[in-house]
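User: Show me an example of a complex going from sequences to structure tokens.

Assistant: Sure. Here are the input components:
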Amino acid sequence: MEEIMASNFIHDFIDEDLKSGVCSSVQTRFPPEPNGYLHIGHAKAICINFGTAKKYGGICNLRLDDTNPQKEDMEYVDAIKEDIEWLGFKWDKCLYASSYFDFIYECAIKLIKNSKAYVDDLTAEEIRQHRGTLTEPGKNSPYRDRSVSENLDLFEKMTNGEYENGARVLRAKIDMASPNLNMRDPVIYRIAHITHHQTGDKWCVYPMYDFAHPLSDARENVTHSLCSLEFENHRPLYDWFLKELNIKNPPRQIEFARLNLNYCLTSKRKCLALVNEKIVDGWDDPRMVTLSGMRRRGYPASAVRNFCEKIGVSKAYSVVDMGLLESCVRDELNESAERAMAVLRPLKVIIDNYPEGQTEEIEVDVHPNYPERGTRKVVFGREIFIERDDFMIEPVKKYFRFYKGSEVRLKSAYYATCTSYDTDENGEVTAIHCTYDPLTKGGNSPDGRKVKGTIHWVSAADSFRATVNLYDRLFDVPNPSDETERGFEENLNPNSLTVLNDCLIEGGLRNVKKSDVFQFMRQGYFCVDKFSTADNVIFNLTVALNSSWGKKE
RNA sequence: UGGGGUGUCGUCAAGUGGUAAGACACAGCACUUUGACUGCUGCAUUCGUAGGUUCAAAUCCUGCCACCCCAGCCA
């Protein structure tokens, strides 16, 4: 992984800081809260944080931002680590905000001693009422001017577990009239009698994000704290804490626009609903844009990284086209995936002039663009199967596959001409009959005659039945979060999953391993699903091939 | 009607006073034993908008418009 991140406005700031001597090296961090699974939006943040550190020869730590035990769980920290590693990044250290609880607590004491923080007895509702509104200033809490000693005493009692959840909070004493609501005496510690997944029952007071984050960054010597745009309003508060606590070489927070992708969902709440209501098959359902979902779908990590590089970094609100992600996946897989032939919706072909009971082996390139990668053997015989789409009773214009009288090339095998077809009582085509030209073995005609169409096939003699999951986008509207009428579930694409049980795959793929990826020629890229077994091989459609056929229809 | 941000092609996005990169998408042509890949061509006289400064403005100034974020003891 030698990619060097392209420059962006964040790097411009860093260049300035380096030049002016504000810092002499660069350190970033990726700070997810372990309360859900990582998705494509996190991938952008991961690439930016790790990519920036790498570009400047600096350090990037993973920091689990676990200051709210109520929502967090070990299950998520394990999944987060696994996903980051899969994406191809290596953290310098894996850290926890919770391991700074002592330090953060001392900082709170310091603020109290400096009369910059106070214990407030107001209820949550009262605090809300005192906060004022966007256009009206707030009112001071009646407890705002408690003495230092009383605050110290009360805060100690809070941490000793003498009060119920919500009974009191510690607030920073800033300015209840600030036009920035975050500066109106924000709560910095709350009481929560709950077991923390890292610190157990050691604490019953926990710092809020706004307090813990700048201190954690400072504690780790982060130089540039990169986060998304919604924290822009928090920056004055971030800087306030660092200044009041006299932090030397304070980290600098820089915000960038988070990633939005059309036709999919990244909201934790909504994804959880999809999982809980069993609309999808878990967090790693191949239709989800979670990292685990994309992994199971067969997206190469390098494609996801490349996508993150291509979308750039800016502060403009944007919605990136899903098509760009898919393009990155095709780009990568076109280079790496071995080719194979698979017939998803089989139609039997009988080659009437091919000797009954005879078969032959044909050598085919594993990758036509790279002959040096070798060949594989496929078996040809009298009975083969082709895609139902590759035959039409009444061909439409510019259709150059099979129809009565047409000659096409059976990929790598022979030219064949369709002579007739059989139907059942419903008029459904059950088989087609062809004659082949023995002189065209390998797919070339000695007399130089050309055919327009080349189609893939598998032989009845050497193919096996498999299940193929055809995936399409989960939602059929560009912005599924836009719940105009009913919930987002109204925007689900009813055809996001098509399960095909009678697909026929070329014999050589009988012993595939989980997560192997192939290009099924003329169709798309497919990977072996995690539930695949030797008896029932399951392929997932990773992404379909581009096609200029039928586009105008 | 407070504060903080953002507006450059259908979608992302370069551009930092010298006359609009690139990618995806789209269209066309060529090549092709994948209607794939690849190659070539086309695709913003214009940068939210109206003025102003300048020899010269997407870039500087002023007004206006649109959109996003903030009133959790969430992050």
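The lines above are the inputs; the final block is the predicted structure for all two components together. The first helix of chain A runs from residue 9 to 20.
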